[in-house]
Design goal:
The complex is a heterodimer.
Chain A: E1 7-22, E2 25-35, E3 38-40, E4 44-48, H1 55-62, E5 70-81, E6 84-87, H2 93-102, E7 104-107, H3 121-130, H4 138-151, H5 168-179, E8 186-190, H6 198-215, E9 218-222, H7 226-232, E10 235-240, E11 243-249, H8 250-255, H9 260-267, H10 306-310, E12 316-317, E13 323-324
Parallel strand pairs in A: 4-9, 4-10, 7-8, 8-9
Antiparallel strand pairs in A: 1-2, 1-3, 1-5, 5-6, 10-11, 11-13, 12-13
Helix pairs in contact in A: 3-4, 5-6
Chain B: H1 2-27, H2 36-46, H3 53-66, H4 73-85, H5 100-135, H6 140-152, H7 157-171, H8 191-228, H9 231-238, H10 243-268, H11 275-280, H12 286-295, H13 299-327
Helix pairs in contact in B: 1-13, 5-8, 5-10, 5-13, 6-8, 7-8, 8-10, 9-10, 10-13, 12-13
Chain lengths: 340, 334
């Protein structure tokens, strides 16, 4: 076991549900269900999964961005800052405000509309800096912004532009640059490459990589694009129906996927020289409001056994820190080797 | 570039709208069933004045000339424009023979003074309170405010105004019941006269500000709630930007944009007067004048007031169009 000093973020049995009132009938959408993460310093940690599997909700829960109807049901989100353990849900509003951007930063999905349309980008920079650094003059702040943009190799003129004057790719890059502004220990990147063409995607991925190299911090990258995960993440978690079903080193998962769902995900990727048609997981992802009993993947799984419908498999270590939650691996007995 | 591609076409449009508006104003009263010349003479007769037929004929001729009703409609129309450029709207019928322009000059300060102040005041009050209430939509006090406004807003204006008048001027005699200043006082720049005017303006102003602010409150609150859900507001929140800054610079600043246009339009309507206000409170403004003009079939006066208000609205819209890019950088002249 490594000690806490090498971790930056851990969650314990994290549960966040959307509690909806559907014409007097209560509906519970289990978007994050019993998630245990241990994310290390200085790594790019990927989270992959289909649309609607709870990836973005998980990110919001880690960032404490819960707004009704999304509620934290159970569990803890713990950050480690200077050897100290902090439960983000135990902080008061001002402490949480300061934690954000100084220690954890967020690149939201859809950078097209995240900037105030009536402010120049440098004004947005100023608001971010103003709210976290005290005693700086306007000019000093603009100088910090210019220096930061220059370091990341973005054109300086973006600072004097309004958001609508920038292309989608440039807006995404500015969002990434802004996230790195105060050298946070953790950057959450939610689908940073979605809605961009592949050439721009490459630039965005490179920028993320450069930032991580420079700051030696942790980036938690959510995307459904397995190609990007293969390219830049160090470790990878596969999410299905609100749960982590497989986790491990990215190379290990791509070389030796254990969970049937992960196998489908990886086998669906095109490979050089292989002209055969690709097979994807049959059926559709389940509704999070009405999950099948037992392992949520069993209706789509080709290796379904009796136990799969009855009991939820646990995420167990299969050696080398490669964890998977599947009855096939545990011999149907549910033995528990891993730590949670 | 800006001048040729935007300003000149925009100015042409401005003049075209004024031209068409005033043309319509010229023709509409001419379709009305009252003949002002016959009406004036009938009025004289009804007071018991004896007129011999020769005099009547002479009078008809003079009045027709005075009212600008000589010749065909086309000739009248040309004549009308000629006089308009020299600021001559002709002579009023119902306050014969005072020139229309003098009547307007007398009434204008009352209306502009009352309505400009109340329009701007209710815009500011309604938008600020509505904006803050919209931002703190989940707070209890915000819901209470919403309830109060929801109760006030649908009260018909004349009932609200009459209620205020009865309560504060008749039951409790705190304010005068009618007029713009005490009877028989000469306008002057003394403190006591100004206080007198303010005392008379208080009730009409109060009725306008309360109902006006209530309406701005509701629109502003609604817009703010929408802006609140915008991505850039969420982004500012997750970036740990200070709350006051988010509220004013991100939410209210953006919610103001449509309200600026609405303010300009309401200011433009000032010159048509607050008809009901001025009638209920017997306020000596343009609204009252317009009402009398309509009931007595006073073409010239109707045309004078309407032409002025067309000018005011189109000019304000033009100004807002030209200034708008200052508020919203996404708007470009093209």
């Amino acid at each position: 076991m490594e000690n806490n000093a090498s971790y930056v973020l851990k969650t314990r049995n994290l549960k966040a549900y959307y509690i909806l009132d559907d014409l007097g009938k209560k509906k519970t959408v289990k978007a994050v269900d019993d998630v245990n993460l241990e994310i290390r310093k200085n790594e790019i940690y990927g989270i992959a999964g289909e649309s609607g599997c709870g990836k973005t909700t998980l990110m919001k829960t880690l960032y404490a961005l819960l707004k009704p109807p999304l509620r934290l049901i159970d569990g803890k989100v713990l950050y480690y800052r200077d050897g100290e353990e902090m439960d983000i849900y135990a902080l008061d509003n001002e402490e949480r405000r300061k934690l954000r951007w100084e220690y954890i930063a967020y690149i939201p999905q859809g950078a097209m509309s995240i900037f105030n349309p009536v402010l120049k980008i440098k004004e947005t920079y100023r608001d971010f800096l103003d709210s976290h650094l005290s005693g700086k003059t306007r000019d000093e702040i603009f100088e910090i912004a210019r220096e930061h943009i220059r370091q990341l190799g973005l054109p300086l003129k973006v600072l004097d532009s309004y958001p609508h004057q920038l292309s989608g790719g440039m807006r995404q890059r500015v969002a990434i640059a802004l996230a790195a502004l105060l050298k946070p220990a953790v950057i959450f990147a939610d689908e940073p490459t979605t809605a961009l063409d592949v050439v721009v995607q490459r630039g965005v991925v490179q920028l993320l990589n450069e930032i991580q190299d420079g700051l030696e911090n942790t980036i938690i990258l959510v995307t459904h694009d397995m190609g990007i995960h293969a390219n830049i993440t160090d470790r990878l978690a596969i999410m299905y129906a609100g749960k982590i079903i497989e986790e491990g080193n990215t190379d290990e998962i791509f070389d030796n996927p254990l969970h049937p769902y992960t196998k489908y995900l990886i086998n669906s990727l095109p490979r050089f020289g292989d002209r055969g048609s690709r097979v994807s997981a049959p059926g559709n992802p389940p509704s999070l409001a009405n999950l099948p009993g037992g392992c949520s993947f069993h209706p789509r799984c080709p290796h379904k056994m009796d136990i799969c419908e009855k009991k939820i498999p646990e995420l167990n270590d299969q050696g080398n820190g490669h964890k998977a939650a599947c009855w096939l691996l545990n011999g149907g007995e549910g033995k528990d080797e891993g730590t949670s | 570039m800006f001048v040729r591609r935007y300003l000149i076409p925009r100015l042409l449009q401005y003049f075209l709208v004024i031209f068409l508006g005033i043309t319509i104003v010229f023709f509409i009263p001419r379709f009305a069933p009252t003949n002002p010349v016959q009406r004036t003479i009938a009025e004289l007769r009804s007071r018991g004045t004896y007129l011999n037929p020769a005099d009547v004929e002479k009078m008809v001729e003079d009045l027709t000339r005075l009212y600008g009703l000589e010749g065909s409609w086309f000739e009248q129309y040309i004549d009308f424009w000629k006089r308009l450029f020299s600021g001559d709207f002709g002579i009023s019928f119902f306050q014969f023979p005072v020139p229309v322009i003098d009547l307007i000059k007398n009434a204008l300060p009352w209306t502009v003074g009352l309505l400009f102040v109340t329009t701007v005041l209710s815009w500011i009050i309604g938008n600020i309170i509505g904006g803050i209430a919209g931002y703190y939509n989940n707070k209890r006090w915000s819901r209470i405010m919403d309830g109060i406004v929801m109760f006030i807003r649908p009260i018909p204006y004349y009932i609200f105004a009459l209620g205020l008048l009865i309560l504060l001027a008749y039951v409790y005699r705190l304010f005068p019941i009618a007029g713009g200043h005490s009877l028989g006082r000469k306008p002057s720049f003394t403190i006591s006269y100004i206080l007198d005017v303010l005392r008379h303006a208080f009730l009409p102003a109060l009725s306008l500000v309360i109902l006006g602010a209530a309406s701005w409150f509701q629109t502003s609150k609604l817009i703010v709630q929408n802006v609140n859900a915008e991505d850039f507001v969420q982004y500012a929140q997750l970036g740990g930007i200070k709350e006051r800054k988010i509220m004013f610079k991100y939410v209210i600043r953006n919610a103001m944009l449509p309200q600026v246009t609405n303010l300009a339009l309401s200011l433009g309507q000032i010159l048509s007067g607050a008809l009901i206000t001025e009638i209920v409170f017997s306020y000596p403004g343009l609204g009252n004048l317009l009402f009398s003009a309509i009931t007595t079939g006073d073409y010239n006066l109707i045309m004078g007031i309407t032409a002025l208000s067309i000018l005011a609205i189109t000019s304000l819209v033009l100004i807002i169009d030209l200034l708008y890019p200052l508020f919203d950088p996404r708007i470009k002249y093209k």
